[in-house]
Amino acid sequence: MRHQVGPYRIYILLFLLILVTAEIIWSWKKERGVYEVKETLANLTVFAGFQFSKYLFAGYQLAMLGFFANITPLKLPHNGWVFLLTFITADFIYYWFHRISHSWKPLWAFHLIHHSAMHMNLTAAYRLNWFSAIVSPLFFIPAALLGMPSDFIVISYVLNLAYQFFMHTEAVGTLGVIEKVMDTPSSHRVHHGSNPIYIDKNFGGVLIIWDRLFNTYQPETEPVRYGLTTGFLSHNPFKLVFQGFIDWFKPVSSALSKDSSTPYSEASPPK
After folding, report:
1. Per-state percent for the chain, helix, strand, coil, to nearest 5
2. At the N or C end, where does the chain have fewer CB atoms within 10 A?
3. What separation in angstroms does the CA of 23 have from each of 30, 35, 163, 241?
4. What's the pTM?
5. What is the predicted pLDDT for the residue at 252?
């Protein structure tokens, strides 16, 4: 089985490399400047660490969901309709997981790194905390208790994150009616904006309907300023990964000075 999976992983990485290369060429020809060498190298280093962390925490994630799937009396079958239900449920859960990650400082400690990118490009999609797998399964426990198969939950979450890779680009403009239902590059650019109008908006993973339902939707109406509200953080991947935790454990008086805490207005840090 391992020999079968290996080549597919290589094909996926090659596909991603082709897309990144195409975006670099587009940026160069259009003089958009969406790639900066040091930041891109930092993104790739963080990505490598994140890939390693997936192996490190995979057993924990499966055991966590498997435990709750085993104790619930509800058992949904493995079929297409249940997978669709699981996928939509996982997307709904992701919306709230993502939204809470912006408002509660312990979760922001994990998420800060993703918003520290100063440029929007495909490599920024994998600017993810190496330890995020510790907390993410906890949010999907309700789906397991509702009887959704744990493998369906994991696959749905993986597909959700894979879809979001394509959202991290300036090469795609607005997409008309699709903007009303799906998360799009335009919607996700807004999410990464430090402009006051864009703060705490567009938390959806695949579907943007949750943002529309819960009043967190904002269309792209002005040029986006990327990064934290406090500006540039670092190109050091270790600082990027651990800065959120450092900020979390700062004394209250020190935390109020907010060296790098949040993408929202500096008057309202996460609690």
Report:
1. 60, 0, 35
2. N
3. 10, 9, 17, 26
4. 0.89
5. 57
